[in-house]
Design a protein that fits this description.
The protein contains 12 helices and 15 strands. β14, α9 and β15 form a beta-alpha-beta unit. α1 crosses α12, α6 crosses α10 and α8 packs across α11. 38% of the residues lie in helices and 18% in strands. It is globular, with a radius of gyration of 20 Å. By secondary structure, it is of the alpha/beta class.
């Protein structure tokens, strides 16, 4: 089977993480898997599946972020050749310009996964529906209710909800003495990730030696009272050192994989009240939300969590409900439906 990621694997992102995690789980189950994506650097050594990189990507502003896409004709033709013999082709974000849409148009046994939460104007949604009509028969999946709503509006086709999955992180290390570590993980320069709100909460917390605010992720930014770690090589190692994980995002999120990763690492979670985040924490049964953009409410929630800490084993058990061992079999069932649907 072939998994097609529209976004460059050179830059960490939720869709790429999802694709690589799914590929690793499928390979562990004995499936022959290849990943096709833009990029110039291998995503890791000794991977149990094949990765075919299509070369440099073009940065395109999209949904408050930057999508790095393979748009050259030569890249499109190469991607089609690479997946031509696959029994099932799984295309993520199939309406995305470049290789994703090009492969999805001609895949014989096609599964598509919609990740985005995008409230497009009516005329844009109409254009996307015309684009979706050019795709063939397919099994459609969305990672959340928010993504399913977006997919229905933009394609006219309902999608079954199969959430993001995560690999199982190492057991949490015993906590050392010191202040409660409050963590942020994400692109600090991308405004919708909410680092500015996190930094404002840290400023309000000055004078409280019981809290230490730290941030990890690509991009350079004045951290003020936040200790800036930059891009970390091992996100699991970073999360294991965090007591209260904060997701202060301002919008455009369809799921909240980082919340699940934080829980599985044993962190308590404080997240902005975006519908997708609220849905994840409601299903997990742990964590709290605060009004998006409200730094004082964020700090109040952090103080409450620090004063009544969630046991790490309870957080971990909640997060592991999204492990690939739980989620992966549902994706395989979608593959089987695609082969039955299309003969």
């Amino acid at each position: 089977m072939a998994l097609v990621c529209p976004y460059s694997l050179d830059v960490p992102g939720g869709v790429g993480t999802h694709v690589l995690g799914l590929a690793a789980w499928l390979a562990s189950q004995g499936h022959e898997v290849r990943v096709v994506a833009p990029g110039t650097r291998a995503p890791g050594p000794d991977l149990p599946f094949r990765v075919d990189l299509l070369g440099p990507a073009v940065p395109v502003p999209y949904n408050g972020s930057i999508a790095r896409l393979a748009l050259r004709t030569s890249q499109v033709h190469r991607a089609r050749r690479l997946v031509a013999d696959a029994d099932v082709i799984h295309v993520h974000e199939p309406l995305t310009p470049g290789v994703a849409f090009a492969v999805a148009r001609f895949a014989p046994h096609l599964v598509v996964t919609h990740h985005a939460c995008l409230h497009a104007p009516a005329f844009v949604a109409g254009l996307l529906r015309l684009r979706a009509a050019r795709l063939g028969r397919r099994v459609a999946v969305a990672v959340s209710q928010e993504a399913a709503r977006t997919a229905l509006a933009n394609t006219g086709m309902p999608a079954a909800i199969i959430p993001n999955g995560i690999e199982v992180p190492p057991p949490r290390r015993p906590r050392t003495a010191g202040p409660v570590r409050v963590g942020f993980l994400g692109r600090v320069t991308e405004s919708r990730k909410g680092f500015g709100v996190f930094r404002s909460a840290a400023t309000l917390a000055r004078g409280n030696p019981g809290l230490e605010f730290v941030a990890a992720g690509p991009g350079k930014m004045d951290g003020g009272p936040v200790r800036m770690l930059g891009e970390v090589a091992d996100r699991w190692d970073y999360l294991q050192g965090v007591d209260v994980f904060v997701a202060p995002n301002l919008g455009g999120e369809s799921f909240g994989m980082v919340l699940i990763e934080a829980l599985a690492s044993g962190c308590d979670v404080v997240a902005s009240d975006l519908p997708a985040f609220a849905a994840v924490l409601a299903q997990a049964g742990v964590g709290v939300t605060f009004p998006a953009g409200d730094a004082q409410a964020l700090l109040d929630a952090v103080n409450a969590s620090a004063g009544d800490p969630l046991p790490p084993d309870i957080a971990r058990a909640a997060g592991l409900g999204w492990s690939w061992d739980r989620v992966g079999p549902r994706v395989v069932e979608a593959y089987l439906r695609a082969t039955r649907l299309m003969g």
